[in-house]
Write a structure and sequence with these properties.
heterotetramer; A: 181 residues; alpha/beta; Rossmann fold; 8 strands; globular; B: 770 residues; binds iron/sulfur cluster
């Protein structure tokens, strides 16, 4: 599997494809650059994982560490809450994306429009279409796919990654201490 | 009126004979009907544009391009990304709407063509003057959608031809708008999508009323029989015929041939997809195998002795699969000839001989009656030759898996196939078998495996699916009396909603989720309707007492009923029920009065469509027909691939103003319903959405408080907290669920909530009212 | 027959009034006609499947996928590369055919819808009983295609509605076959494509006969007037109206309003695309600007004071461009509403006021008569306000070009834009201006330029296009007497062929090539037909004496004639002429006798269609209509984007056997015609192909020798050597061009050539003959 | 311009794309490997060039040097002849491709099916569709685009190249002496 072909190879169709964030540093730079970031966490963060750890565990810690407000979609909300992250909003992904496409939408906390949106854990096809919608409908927004599956429609995407590589990339980018959970 | 056909029949004219006959009579109904015609009988594609634009101003399309490119003409491909226009000047947004229109046209054409073939066939068999009777004495308003849209009240099969001519003309107009260099505006494209959807429901109603009437299906019968569903229900000792598709005449001919020749019980007639449902409406002895996703596994099982395919949702490789399994095929539809030789005109004996000796693998027979005879006789002769497929050494085959992951990356449901296959390779085959429940049977995993592992075949081999479920067969229309009983409670909001689970089987996690949602909402005393593949999926679920929803809940259109209207074409009875509420309960005139009635349904009838596995262009058209009536539709995550959502912005107060007909003032009513078309990520999210989308501006406080309590409850189950938008749905304190009032009031006040009136709501200007 | 409408009018019936009226009468023609009906009146999609499969066994599809993917349903996207099947089981080959069918359906729907709107409008204006008269006394066989396909002989406008109902029903059936899970076989898809094409020509004939009859266009008139073409022909001092599109009623209403108010000559009525041609058929004072490719440059010139758009081939950004140029727009078609407010019902004064004061940029007016008045009055009032666009500093703008090459990589014609722009930046602007001649005006270069250079605008500014050309306006049908005169020479091969240059403007090198080919074949005494954009392109070329082809050659359907039949819908007269040869010259029965007549045309009438710039789905449908009649079509290189060719294998002898009706034996006839659909790389290659494809099995030796001499000549011009396949085309020595006999015989003998008989050829079995 | 995006960026749609022949050696290896090669030369070899030299000049020399039979399409035939290359066949490109798709077709010289086809000089869209047709219809065939525009549907393609780079790659691969013409 190439690291930067769509994770579902048939999900092609763009002339512009996301640069892959191969190194933690590149992702960390985006996190630093964000003035009004948002992290969207979907239900598949509850099924992706390894060695007794789930993607949502890492992402919750990342959100806390970086101080990024979180939007929970699907049924990720309660799982975030038990990990100490109270979602700024619980909302269906499409509804959220539609608001994000409005450059005047004041964001999940009403503090002003978001500039960077990190997305993880929707099903692949849903994340793909949502990022396509934002690419076309929200040119003012930088989108970053944090799922372990390459998303061509994002502004930036992680490459296709197996769990250990994904784990270490996220941990490295957000500076999470490497203590096993 | 009878005089006319004779008169015309006598005239020497240049028209062809058959056509002339159809024509001279097809145009007129008999009897008188003096309801005045509304403003838009047989509306053109622009006649309801104003209504559409009102809806679409609230529910603006959010585009989700599947492709930056357009490849529709030889100027292309054009790259429409980054705001670029194509060589014809089109934008990406308009292009997405255009493709949506194309899909809606294909869907509507499919139903219209289906209806046309059905009506022509039934006229051939039963005569032009055969009366329409979808519900006996229980149904006076026989074709609410046709009456609403066309301003016609058909009485005979022949009258339906007039309706279909209208539908055909409209589809052609709409399709023409997708040509390069026609429509430029996305919202105008969307308006045409809505028009296509409206026409689609007309065609659906024509098709189902025709078949219910002529083929003596259950007529609006809440007690339609329970029938068997599942491979386990099949007596494999007998000869087995399998019918796949949607257009029931060949299947009916099979059943009729059996009956006429005293062979009932001697041959198992089994079906997949809507034909399966419809043939159990003809004869409860027919067996439903399952929805569309069962094609591969059932054919590969080798059980069917003969395969009859008609049209729609038929796998394109069915013939190859059947040949490999040693099963001869009869294709029966002009729309799916599969390259087979047309032997319609040959004598039945020759066809039986050719099929049963294996001289040919298949043939095209375009005469349903002949198919009936040939299929039965050939299946009986094939039975002794049935080839039981060798049992697979699952472990050995699976052990070749290198874990490359190509199968999961090809799988629409993103199932963890590599893990399950590798486990099976180690001898743990149960997990692999269990995955079949969430498999849509598409076969893509097999296409990509570098080891040549037929993953789906392996899953099927690992799963012993001998379960038998009970499903209530399609009852057809809703009775006028049922409408009279529930119309008030629905419009007042006291029945928390009507939820219809419709459409195909592109499920994120198998039919299980549909079954669970059906049960959940029935328990909550919504009126639950089902149709098509969803009706079958809903049956594949048992409660603690081992009952399927059809055994547990009543088949009445009532709070807590689970109403299988029938096959996909029966969906017209669901929209029809909403329209009938406007007519029977609220006494609105239907005839050619679309906008007023849609405005009524939109503001007052808390109906929600759920197409959890929506796959096809037909599903797109059906959904659009609901939208134009103001009925929101929720789809599963794959529904995002329809390329755009129609989403409201609950946070924009100005979007939610309506005119209060009592005061003629613009008043805020809150975001009800919040969206017209939305994909949900998970079942839990869908349920919270459904409960919310069932709210309507017209809800009484009692009704709203009931609806809110369901919403709050399902929202909390999904999100683990209180909804943050309650203040938008609560008009007065009386709207609050009593037992939660103390908990909720502070929440509202924190959001600056204040009381507001409950209006007599309309989106339309005064002059639009009749 | 007249009695019927009254009778029905009196009956109280549930049908809507307007519809009832249409119906009661629309079904019947008057007069008697006792030709027996052939085997396939109003054929279903499968009725001619056997004929199609015979053709397609010779001309097998060679697929050229534009995409490995299918994205038609939510199972997708599916990757069909490498032999993989989609989630519905479809193969890549079937998918390509399916998309081809979709395109053909869109094209046929567009013409059918166009015909329907035209006929409805003309009935409104001229009455149901208005007689059809496409050619006065010169045309007895008024609608050969309708007679052939439908078995009907319409006499009034109302009769055409019956024909259109048939077309609409067929389009809907065919479109339904494109739904997921319908047809599985590529050849069956292709057969449906041919059916769509046949229906398309029926719709074309209906549309053109209706408008010729009711709007008093030239009636089969070889002397149809020469009219002006080119921006230079426009008197810019006068108010200028521009009409863009294909559906002529608004344009006619404009001309009629001018005539009725004594304003002829006071307002310039200019047009682009087929409406332009059709309005000069109504009034030779109207001016044709040019084909589809002229939209951007003419609007940006600021010359038009008002823009009226109807339907088809209208740029989607026309409204934006017009607004930027200060030109108000009236949209007139339900198919292209452009998001504009519908002001149809407001009084004309208000509309004139709104448009001429600039209060609005545009509006939708769905009443052609009102458009006629409003457009004229508003244009007159706008004239003083015309905004001449500022002249561009070409050099300064061009000097910003960084030579990045994005423009050429976006340009469909692969024009060397960077070189030309950079030269212009250095002050050499001539080269840039010269490129306009080969520019299709798509604007894609402008969309991609990172410097924001509007390349097309710059080209237009660099080119002073004040030329005026003469084009013979559309004459309509071919006279019976013309057919009588040329039928023999064509069937015997003594006229070397009929070449029709049809269709759109997606040219590899501008219209120039079409013009040159027209001249070449007219000089070679082929019968040359033109239509649509190609008819306009052919005019933009002068010979040494400064004459355009229309000035130089006669307008008769004769050897060396250049026959502009008219707009795109007039293409039916070209296929109609082939059919008329079978009827008038060869006395074959037409009525409902498609296969026999197509077999006749295929084996005997050396006609070739050339759609050098074929762009649209309409062009795809038109081509398919020719194919089903056995008439091959050559397209330019972009035509490969139609996704498949239909190619013969001249090297496979077994493919070229026919039945000799005299002996009932299978005989080899050589690869005539060799292909049914092929894209040529260059004009020279196309010409060699055209000459070759004009050969038919039935050619007499004299005819074949004439045809061979053209083929040899054009082949040598292209390839610089003798054709290597002459032995396949020479049956007897008498077939050889006399003066080349000595040179050619050794060539033949080297290829093992021996003499063979000239049969009475047919592809059909005996029983297919009437 | 990326070297390996379709030369016309919109001409995408494949899940498999041609490896680019970046070095003369890679192309030379393909030429060596061919047992029954064919070189297809289209009309655009007469308009592509620089410094008074045309693509057809080089390709003619290449064909002679490597002894590859040539199919001339469009109007390239006479131009090849004057350069000393008598085309084995003059044929329209689509007709040729259709024959190539038949694994039993005995080739331009009747000596047996071709195994590798080198293609140059069709217009981009025509070459693109033709190579797509061969990719799907002629899986037995290796196709190599020698045009200076990257062709994703070929088995192998030259990258997008300016004239001098194209010239030196062809000259290098075919071992053409570098004397200016
Ligand atoms: S329809 Fe328009 S956008 Fe699509 S390929 Fe044609 S010109 Fe391009
Ligand atoms: S057949 Fe089942 S497991 Fe295989 S790809 Fe399709 S849905 Fe997934
Ligand atoms: S594609 Fe085949 S080999 Fe690869 S993981 Fe799936 S089953 Fe195993
Ligand atoms: S629209 Fe579909 S078929 Fe066309 S290029 Fe895109 S993915 Fe391919
Ligand atoms: S129509 Fe078939 S091939 Fe196309 S996306 Fe749907 S399942 Fe896949
Ligand atoms: S407008 Fe003309 S020059 Fe520009 S891309 Fe289109 S055809 Fe080429
Ligand atoms: S795209 Fe613009 S900058 Fe680039 S070469 Fe063309 S004109 Fe010059
Ligand atoms: S010839 Fe083609 S481009 Fe021209 S007007 Fe007709 S359909 Fe349009």
């Amino acid at each position: 599997m190439s690291r930067t072909e769509p994770w579902q190879p048939a999900m092609q169709g763009g002339t512009v494809t996301a640069p892959a964030l191969e190194k933690p540093g590149a992702l960390a730079a985006l996190v630093r650059r964000a003035r009004r970031p948002l992290l969207v966490v979907g239900h598949r963060t509850l099924v992706t994982g390894g060695d007794g750890e789930l993607a949502i565990d890492l992402l919750a810690r990342a959100a806390l560490k970086a101080g990024i407000p979180v939007a929970a979609t699907g049924d990720a909300g309660p799982a975030l809450a038990v990990r100490g992250v109270e979602p700024a909003i619980c909302i269906s992904a499409m509804n959220l994306a539609n608001r994000l496409a409005d450059p005047a939408w004041p964001g999940v906390d009403g503090q002003g429009p978001h500039d960077i949106v990190f997305v993880a854990g929707l099903s692949y096809a849903l994340e793909w279409t949502l990022l396509s919608g934002l690419r076309h409908g929200a040119p003012h927004l930088v989108t970053v796919s944090l799922s372990p599956a390459y998303e061509p429609h994002a502004s930036f995407s992680l490459p296709n990654l197996a769990w250990p590589a994904w784990r270490s990339l996220i941990a490295g980018a957000f500076g999470l201490e490497e203590a096993a959970p | 009126m009878k005089g006319i056909d004779i008169h015309i029949g006598e005239i020497a004219s240049p028209l062809g004979r058959v056509r002339e006959l159809r024509v001279g009579i097809g145009r007129v109904g008999s009897g008188t009907w003096d309801e005045p015609v509304g403003p838009t009988p047989c509306p053109s594609p622009t006649a309801l544009r104003d209504w559409d634009r009102r809806l679409l101003a609230r529910y603006r399309p959010f585009y989700l391009p599947l492709c930056d490119l357009c490849c529709l003409c030889t100027y292309g491909k054009c790259d429409l990304s980054g705001g670029k226009r194509g060589a014809c000047g089109i934008t990406l947004a308009a292009q997405q709407s255009r493709v949506a229109l194309l899909a809606a046209c294909i869907g509507t054409a499919t139903h219209t063509s289906h209806a046309r073939e059905l009506v022509s066939h039934l006229i051939d068999r039963y005569g032009r003057q055969f009366p329409l009777d979808p519900g006996g004495l229980a149904v006076d308003l026989r074709m609410p959608i046709v009456e609403l849209v066309c301003g016609l009240r058909p009485e005979t099969l022949a009258d339906l031809e007039t309706v279909l001519e209208y539908c055909e003309g409209q589809v052609v107009h709409l399709l023409a708008a997708t040509h390069t260099g026609q429509e430029a505006d996305p919202i105008d494209f969307e308006s045409k999508v809505l028009h296509a959807g409206m026409i689609d429901h007309v065609a659906l109603e024509v098709a189902d009323v025709a078949q219910v009437s002529a083929l003596d299906f259950p007529k609006a019968d809440p007690e339609a029989p329970l029938v068997d569903l599942g491979i386990g229900a099949i007596d494999r000792e007998k000869p087995v015929v399998l019918v796949v598709g949607h257009n029931v005449p060949p299947a009916v001919a099979i059943l009729d041939y059996l009956a006429a020749h005293g062979l009932e019980g001697a041959v198992e007639v089994t079906g997949i997809c809507c034909t399966a449902i419809d043939m159990t409406r003809r004869s409860p002895s027919a067996k439903i195998v399952g929805p569309i996703s069962w094609q591969l596994r059932y054919i590969r099982s080798g059980i069917p002795d003969l395969l009859v395919v008609d049209e729609q949702c038929v796998r394109a490789d069915l013939f190859d699969e059947a040949r490999d399994a040693g099963i001869p095929v009869i294709a029966t539809s002009a729309k799916n000839c599969i390259g087979l030789p047309d032997r319609t005109k040959e004598p039945a004996d020759a066809l039986v001989e050719a099929l049963s000796t294996g001289a040919v693998n298949g043939m095209l027979v375009l005469d349903p009656e002949k198919v009936g005879e040939v299929a039965v006789r050939a299946a009986i002769r094939r039975r002794p030759l049935r080839r039981v497929p060798p049992s697979l050494d699952i472990e050995a085959i699976a052990s070749a898996c290198g874990g490359c992951g190509r199968c999961i990356r090809a799988c629409p449901t993103e199932a963890d196939l590599p893990g399950a296959v590798q486990a099976a390779g180690r001898g743990e085959i149960a997990a692999l078998g269990a995955m079949l429940a969430s498999c849509v049977g598409c076969g893509r995993c097999e296409e990509v495996c570098p080891q040549g592992i037929e993953v789906h075949r392996l899953m099927a081999a690992a799963c012993d699916d001998c379960e038998v479920y009970a499903v209530r067969t399609g009852r057809g229309a809703i009775q006028d009396v049922e409408i009279r009983e529930v119309g008030g409670p629905i419009v007042l909001g006291e029945i928390p909603g009507v939820v219809a689970f419709v459409g195909c089987a592109n499920y994120p996690d198998g039919g299980r989720e549909v079954a669970e949602m059906v049960t959940e909402f029935a328990k909550r005393r919504f009126v639950v309707c089902t149709s098509g593949c969803s009706a079958m999926a809903a049956a594949m679920h048992r409660d603690e007492e081992g009952l399927t929803p059809y055994e547990r809940f009543s088949g009445r259109f009532e709070a807590g009923g689970v109403v299988n209207v029938g096959s996909c074409v029966s969906n017209a009875h669901i929209s029809g029920a909403a329209v009938k509420i406007a007519s029977i309960f609220a006494k609105r005139r239907l005839r050619g009065n679309y906008a007023e009635v849609a405005d009524y349904v939109y503001n007052r009838v808390g109906a929600v469509g759920v197409a959890w596995g929506a796959m096809s262009q037909k599903a797109a058209a059906i959904a659009a027909g609901f939208w134009r009536l103001g009925i929101p539709v929720v789809v599963g995550p794959h529904g995002a691939k329809y390329r755009r959502m129609l989403l409201g912005r609950q946070d924009c107060d100005e979007d939610w103003m309506v005119r209060d007909r009592r005061t003629d003032e613009e008043v805020y009513v809150g975001p009800v319903p919040e969206h017209l078309f939305i994909a949900a990520e998970t079942k839990e999210e869908a349920m919270a959405l459904i409960a919310k989308l069932a709210m309507r501006p017209n809800d009484t406080s009692r009704g709203r408080s009931i609806k809110l309590s369901h919403y709050i409850d399902l929202y909390r189950r999904c999100y683990g907290r209180m909804p943050d938008d309650l203040h938008r749905f609560v008009r007065t304190k009386a709207d609050l669920p009593v037992i939660q009032k103390d908990e909720l009031l502070p929440l509202l006040e924190r959001n600056g909530w204040s009381e507001r009136p409950i209006p007599d709501p309309t989106l339309l200007p005064e002059e639009a009212y009749q």
